[in-house]
Amino acid sequence: MAKSKASMWVEKYRPKSVNDVASQEEVVKSLLGAIEQGALPHLLFYGPPGTGKTSTILAMTRMLYHKDVWRDRVLEMNASDERGIKVIRQKVKAFAQRAVGTKTYAGYPSPPFKIIILDEADTMTKDAQGALRRTMETYSNVTRFCLVCNYVSRIIEPLASRCAKYRFSPLDKESMRTRLLSIAQAENVNYPNEVYDNILDFSQGDMRRAVNLLQSCVNFYGANGTISPDALLEVSGQIPPQIISNVWSALNSKSFAEVANTVDYVIKEGYPALALLTKIHDDVIHSSSISDHNKAVIIERLAQADKALADGADDSLQLHDVLLTLLQHNNDK
């Protein structure tokens, strides 16, 4: 058990086969057809985090290539760490132009091309994407590319148009529950059903988050008994309801000083700005006291903040700006 706790369950229980990918039936069906034929276009996987994009392409490569040649045929890179044009021109190009061996293995299609996986490709610079497009064109006879991203709109059109696009949707609760219970059984975890219900509620269709949360619960509270919603909230890193209540109280006071103090408290306590903005978004959508016009203004500002945070903007500045917009439009019909 000690060894199991030390390893990351999200890696340990990654799907070994495309058939094991949960709740993405159309994607799986299409890719299985490509595996049978041994023919593969360039691929673009997009959708929310934790929906199986990276797991799917990794499982697919393991069905295509025997483990003895897998590292020679597959290059996996995280584009958010290596996203400049220099990496594309050197590391990617060097792998792409290498010749492909002809050795085959029984039970593996072993197609005559290599595969380069670029995770978080939407963080690549425009220049790097342009260089990648040219590399794809030049070496398409011996190399296939799979771009994995959350935001397909950030992939330049000349690059996206060269790929077969597959959208990964958030996982439904039943598929997630089945997978979570399977992992719990394998790890001898015995929790009542309400614990799994709470984990699924916190995860919001993100399987990776659900598995990490389950493992955190086991590490902090043991593998047996029950876990209170408050304890689960603490482990999950979600924003406590009281903090959300304090934000709305500050907004309703119409005092910028009080709003600023609340934002400072949220930042000092280490709560992520994006989690707070998500809660605010949900409250605004369901509010009966904010007019439709003002909701539109607020939601647009939230979207701008979401993009700014994804691009590396400061949490505190974005929260101040969003809450100032709310201060101007909250209850203002």
TrEMBL record:
<dbReference type="GO" id="GO:0006281">
    <property type="term" value="P:DNA repair"/>
</dbReference>
<dbReference type="InterPro" id="IPR003593">
    <property type="entry name" value="AAA+_ATPase"/>
</dbReference>
<dbReference type="InterPro" id="IPR003959">
    <property type="entry name" value="ATPase_AAA_core"/>
</dbReference>
<dbReference type="GO" id="GO:0003689">
    <property type="term" value="F:DNA clamp loader activity"/>
</dbReference>
<dbReference type="InterPro" id="IPR008921">
    <property type="entry name" value="DNA_pol3_clamp-load_cplx_C"/>
</dbReference>
<keyword id="KW-0539">Nucleus</keyword>
<dbReference type="InterPro" id="IPR013748">
    <property type="entry name" value="Rep_factorC_C"/>
</dbReference>
<dbReference type="GO" id="GO:0006261">
    <property type="term" value="P:DNA-templated DNA replication"/>
</dbReference>
<dbReference type="InterPro" id="IPR050238">
    <property type="entry name" value="DNA_Rep/Repair_Clamp_Loader"/>
</dbReference>
<dbReference type="Pfam" id="PF00004">
    <property type="entry name" value="AAA"/>
</dbReference>
<dbReference type="InterPro" id="IPR027417">
    <property type="entry name" value="P-loop_NTPase"/>
</dbReference>
<dbReference type="Pfam" id="PF08542">
    <property type="entry name" value="Rep_fac_C"/>
</dbReference>
<dbReference type="GO" id="GO:0005524">
    <property type="term" value="F:ATP binding"/>
</dbReference>
<feature type="domain" description="AAA+ ATPase">
    <location>
        <begin position="39"/>
        <end position="174"/>
    </location>
</feature>
<protein>
    <recommendedName>
        <fullName>AAA+ ATPase domain-containing protein</fullName>
    </recommendedName>
</protein>
<keyword id="KW-0547">Nucleotide-binding</keyword>
<dbReference type="Pfam" id="PF21960">
    <property type="entry name" value="RCF1-5-like_lid"/>
</dbReference>
<dbReference type="GO" id="GO:0003677">
    <property type="term" value="F:DNA binding"/>
</dbReference>
<comment type="similarity">
    <text>Belongs to the activator 1 small subunits family.</text>
</comment>
<dbReference type="GO" id="GO:0016887">
    <property type="term" value="F:ATP hydrolysis activity"/>
</dbReference>
<dbReference type="InterPro" id="IPR047854">
    <property type="entry name" value="RFC_lid"/>
</dbReference>
<dbReference type="GO" id="GO:0005634">
    <property type="term" value="C:nucleus"/>
</dbReference>
<keyword id="KW-0235">DNA replication</keyword>
<dbReference type="GO" id="GO:0005663">
    <property type="term" value="C:DNA replication factor C complex"/>
</dbReference>
<keyword id="KW-0067">ATP-binding</keyword>
